[in-house]
Amino acid sequence: MVGYTGVVPPNKKLNFTIHKWSSYSGEYHPNKILSDNPFEQQSRWQSGSNFPPQFIILKLEKPAVVRTITFGKFHKTHVCNLRCFKVYGGMHDEGMIELCEKGLKNDSKPETFELQDKFHGSYFPSQYIKIVPVATWGPTAFNYSIWYVALGGIDDSNFVNPCMQFFEQCREERTIKLCLKHLRQHNYSEAFQSLQKRSKVQLEHPMLSQLHHLLVECGDYDAVEHLVDSAFNQGYMEEYTSRQYTATWEQVNLADTSSRPGTRGGHPMCIDEAAGLVYLFGGWDGKQDLADFWEFSSESNKWRMISQDTELNNGPCRRSCHKMVLDSTHKLIYVLGRYLESRAREHLVLKSDFYCYDIQCEEWSLLSSDTASEGGPELIYDHQMVLDSDAQCIYIFGGKVSSRNLSCSMSFSILFDLSLSLS
Known about the structure:
- By secondary structure, the protein is α+β, with helices and mostly antiparallel strands.
- It has helices at about 155-185, 190-200, 205-220, 220-235, 240, 340-345, and strands at about 10-15, 15-20, 45, 55-70, 80-90, 95-100, 110-115, 120, 120-125, 125-135, 145, 150-155, 270, 275-285, 290-295, 300-305, 325, 330-335, 355-360, 365-370, 380, 385-390, 395, 400, 415-420.
- β14 and β15 form a beta hairpin.
């Protein structure tokens, strides 16, 4: 199957109407997003509730390959702006494909986002676009607002029609494969063979079908080993067996050397893999503990100072030998522990504070002023800390406990877990 093979036409603004919505408040009808009036407070859609799912479905004037979506905004920051949203597309207003998951900055500048426009390597068309708000910039009690939406893409029928034919063929083949998989899993062998023969659709590579027959249906493990050997000798595994994994160190050449962290030790780092961003906080420069907070972009090879002193931004004070972990799902960074020199322990209250940094809001929050008083670890340093994003749980193990009595033998911390949903 091959989709459109000619020259791809340029994008244009696509016309649409409001097809369906989940709810709206008072005069904030969904039709308001058709006009871009950033200085008018009432020129927006506002959901009638913040209880999910809330959505707006747009219907295009005619089928098109939708490639971009633009959001207009109010002329100043607003608590109802979408901190996170999802966009779906398809030829019908149900069963659509997710095209993107993004978030708006809480400012007045319009933002344009690229949408997924290919399916199995070919452009796919949409007649409907669904916008699903996920979170606002304000507290959870606020309803969602969208001020203006514009779509960009291609609606030239000479381009779209071949894409529609290809997409329908892909959907049909995928549906048949799901049926074949269901029939085989339930051992409906006659129906499986009949559908495969009539449709001429192969569920998988013939060797995989043979593997299923020998392993699942016959339980012939010797024959399975011979089949795997045969697959290896025929080169089916060469792509994997020929790979030689070696570690290579390379010095990162900064695009801007005027702004970067100074030399230090005892500092933690964490990474947001999806965003390609590395975070560094604090450490010791040989003379004093540090409280500077940095972000490094692997895409631009540039450092950005988020804060010169986090304590001035309601964040943690200067520290070293602490640990931090990043929740990439919710874009949150957690910081725990610090080292105190012996003379400092005599004068300071030895409490273990626990902080959270919201990457999207760029705000610090003190989650606990003393974790030990809540059943957690005492003031520790040189410990290890990991985060399970799916389970929303942090595990902390080991580390040295800071003690005011220096004559006592060194004490080490035990294993703790913290449920973030309850924190």
